[in-house]
């Protein structure tokens, strides 16, 4: 009786400073597996394809329904979430690599801190705190809410940064995800009160909006189908107008 | 005001590529095309250009200074990219890569071309049909000229597409799609004008 197996070739790395290496695993096949359950199987029995005992492969995952972005990794060449990568739909051997646009912590775990720092830099929130009750904010038109909702699906997974040829060690480029969040929060009627501030951040800081080279890989790679390149082009328009207002002067500075 | 001029430099780089450099390339190719009608017509056209007042100032302001800035800053941009067309073989990613490749080809060619023509003129040579005919008498030079004409035409055509995005003119995917067609139309037309013109010197 021949038992069906799944072969995984995993690019592993002990820590950030050690060289990566590839280790192959063969695990028994079960129905309806995803890459996460395959990695769990390796953790249960950390023996590689040569039959040697090894350490369990490290990875991250949280929600298991493609809304948290934690399990992003490069699967058969493309960055995506491991939870929605179904084994039955993948070509074997399944090649897993960390998204090494980010610092690799260990094996498939990367540090996406730069994205969260970027969200802080661009103030990707609606400031509503005051010393007294500010009351209800202005209403948002339904048509605008609908496209803004698409932008709000961003889970900071890092796939767009991994796919971008201009996000690398030679460039400071902030990347598509935080830029699209600028458009999202500028679209909100209360968030728009800080529109100029957000725009100036992506105009004046290192690696801002103009570092985009329009390869448009991000919009193809985004697992949530966010119109990232439309956001970038819309911000190009907004920052162009903002720069004219700032230079020539305007009575309306928002 | 911030001290970071990157936003300004990038926007300037994009603008200079269209005005004056793109406009200059179109005029340059059109004058070259006069050679199709024979050496006399071409010589008349070049003599007319040389007879323009304030020519040297115009050359510096409209051609040399913009091309030096666009070229040097463009090289800086080109070498920042880490190309990944093998993983993401989408049309626009190829355009992104080709824009940088054709830019590098064009700037290297321009250095040689300026040395061979404008600097020789400054050293006393006469710019006319025979000068170009002598240059492209060598098949290698002719091939390099054709490669550079195609590269510069692509760089201008696709550069118009990027210009429209960079300045926030084409925001919607549909407008960007139509701009792709226009950009490729410019590429084909400019390549045709340029190649037909250079072959008139053979």
From TrEMBL, chain A:
Native organism is Evansella vedderi
| InterPro entries listed in its UniProt record | 2Fe-2S_ferredoxin-like_sf (IPR036010), 4Fe4S_Fe-S-bd (IPR017896), 4Fe4S_Fe_S_CS (IPR017900), Beta-grasp_dom_sf (IPR012675), Helical_ferredxn (IPR009051), SDH/FRD_Iron-Sulfur (IPR050573), Succ_DH/fum_Rdtase_Fe-S (IPR004489), Succ_DH/fum_Rdtase_N (IPR025192)
EC main group: oxidoreductase
This chain belongs to the protein called: succinate dehydrogenase
Could you tell me the superkingdom of the organism this chain comes from?
A: Bacteria
SUPFAM superfamilies in the record? 2Fe-2S ferredoxin-like, alpha-helical ferredoxin
**Annotated PROSITE patterns:** 4FE4S_FER_1, 4FE4S_FER_2
Domain 4Fe-4S ferredoxin-type per the UniProt entry, residue ranges: 145-173
TrEMBL record, chain B:
Bilayer-crossing residues are: 12-31, 51-77, 98-115, 135-157, 178-199
Q: What keyword terms does UniProt attach to this protein?
A: Heme, Iron, Membrane, Metal-binding, Transmembrane, Transmembrane helix
Q: Does the keyword Transmembrane apply?
A: yes
- Classification via CDD domains: SQR_TypeB_1_TM
Q: Which Gene3D superfamilies match?
A: Fumarate reductase/succinate dehydrogenase, transmembrane subunit (1.20.1300.10)
Q: Name one Pfam family in it.
A: Sdh_cyt
Location of this chain's protein in the cell: Membrane
Keyword Transmembrane helix in record = yes
NCBIfam families this protein is in? Answer: sdhC_b558_fam
Q: State the protein's name.
A: Succinate dehydrogenase / fumarate reductase cytochrome b subunit
Could you tell me which species this protein originates from?
Evansella vedderi
């Amino acid at each position: 009786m021949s038992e069906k197996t799944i072969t995984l070739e995993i690019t592993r790395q002990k820590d950030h400073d050690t060289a990566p290496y590839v280790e192959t695993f063969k695990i028994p096949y079960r129905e309806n597996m995803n890459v996460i359950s395959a990695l769990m199987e390796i953790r249960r029995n950390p023996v590689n394809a040569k039959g040697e005992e090894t350490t369990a492969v490290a990875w991250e995952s949280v929600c298991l329904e493609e809304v948290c972005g934690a399990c992003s990794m490069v699967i058969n060449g493309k960055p995506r979430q491991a939870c929605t990568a179904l084994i039955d739909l993948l070509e074997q051997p399944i090649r897993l690599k960390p998204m090494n646009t980010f610092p690799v912590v260990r094996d498939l775990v990367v540090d996406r801190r730069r994205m969260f720092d970027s969200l802080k830099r661009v103030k990707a929130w609606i400031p509503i705190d005051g010393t007294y009750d500010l009351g209800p904010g202005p209403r948002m038109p339904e048509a605008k809410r609908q496209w803004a909702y698409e932008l709000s699906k961003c889970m900071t997974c890092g796939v767009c940064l991994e796919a971008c040829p201009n996000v690398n060690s030679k460039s400071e480029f902030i990347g598509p995800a935080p830029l699209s969040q600028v458009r999202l929060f500028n679209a909100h009627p209360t968030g728009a009160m800080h529109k100029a501030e957000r725009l100036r951040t992506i105009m004046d800081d290192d690696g801002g909006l103009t570092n985009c080279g329009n390869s448009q890989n991000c919009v193809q790679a985004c697992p949530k189908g966010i119109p990232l390149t439309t956001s970038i082009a819309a911000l190009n328009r907004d920052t162009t107008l903002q720069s004219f207002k700032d230079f020539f002067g305007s009575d309306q500075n928002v | 005001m911030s001290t970071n001029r990157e936003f300004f430099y990038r926007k300037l780089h994009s603008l200079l590529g269209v005005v004056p450099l793109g406009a200059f390339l179109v005029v340059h190719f059109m004058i070259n095309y006069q050679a199709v009608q024979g050496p006399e017509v071409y010589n008349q056209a070049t003599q007319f250009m040389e007879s323009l007042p304030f020519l040297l100032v115009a050359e510096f302001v409209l051609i040399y200074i913009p091309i030096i800035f666009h070229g040097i800053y463009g090289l800086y941009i080109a070498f920042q990219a880490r190309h990944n067309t093998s993983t993401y073989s989408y049309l626009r990613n190829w355009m992104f890569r080709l824009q940088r490749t054709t830019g590098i080809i064009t700037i290297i060619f321009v250095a040689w071309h300026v040395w061979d023509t404008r600097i020789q003129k400054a050293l006393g040579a006469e710019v006319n049909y025979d000068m170009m005919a002598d240059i492209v008498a060598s098949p290698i030079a002719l091939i390099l000229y054709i490669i550079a004409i195609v590269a510069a035409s692509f760089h201008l055509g696709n550069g118009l597409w990027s210009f429209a995005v960079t300045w926030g003119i084409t925001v919607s995917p549909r407008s960007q799609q139509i701009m792709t067609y226009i950009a490729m139309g410019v590429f084909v037309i400019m390549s045709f004008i340029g190649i037909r013109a250079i072959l008139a010197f053979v």
